Amino acid sequence: MGDCIFCKIIKGEIPCIKVYEDDSMLAFADINPISKGHTLIIPKRHVENMWEATEGELVTIMKTAKKLIHAIKDALNPQGVAVLQLNGRAVNQIVMHYHLHLIPRSEGEPELKQTAWELIPGDMDKIKETAEKIASAIR
């Protein structure tokens, strides 16, 4: 994609602070970090979201995430790492190129809204109905 900022980073047209790279993946420091060490992992092939990614790409992304989460632990010693990935504009995906966030967290830092939600019991009949609908649509 000609106007994709992440594709431009992959091509070297826009600089990044590279953390890791191999033939199919690139990981770099987020320039708008939520916390120290906030890292993005992207496939080098332009793929907008999880729906478009191949199973192989998703496996490679998670293998890369495992490698990097260990490096983050060794380098920064966080007490946890949030792994976050958004699919589509309705969930605030801004850059329309698949990317996985690794966000290190330690005690005393403000909670991430994405990891702290109120537990409100749902309607079990509606939950079951929705789960069955999803299950029947599995390909």
Topology:
Blueprint lengths: L4 H7 L6 E4 L3 E5 L9 E5 L11 H22 L3 E5 L15 E6 L18 H13 L3
Antiparallel strand pairs: 1-2, 2-3, 3-5, 4-5
- Poorly predicted spans: none
Gap from first CA to last CA:
29 Å
* Number of helices in the DSSP assignment: 3
Based on CA atoms alone, the radius of gyration comes out at 17 Å
The gross shape turns out to be: globular
Q: How helix-rich are the residues, as a percent range?
A: 25-40%
Q: For this structure, what is the CATH class?
A: Alpha Beta
**Category from helices, strands and their pairing:** alpha+beta
**Extended strand count:** 5
The strand line-up of the biggest sheet is 1-2-3-5-4
Number of self-contained structural domains:
1
Mean pLDDT: 94
Supply database-style keywords.
single chain; 139 residues; alpha+beta; HIT family, subunit A; five-stranded antiparallel β-sheet; 3 helices; 30% helix; globular
Structure description:
- The structure is a single chain.
- Helix content is 30%, strand content 18%.
- The chain has one domain: HIT-like (HIT family, subunit A, 2-Layer Sandwich).
- The radius of gyration is 17 Å and the shape is globular.
- The mean pLDDT is 94.
- The protein is α+β, with helices and mostly antiparallel strands.
- The chain contains 3 helices and 5 strands.
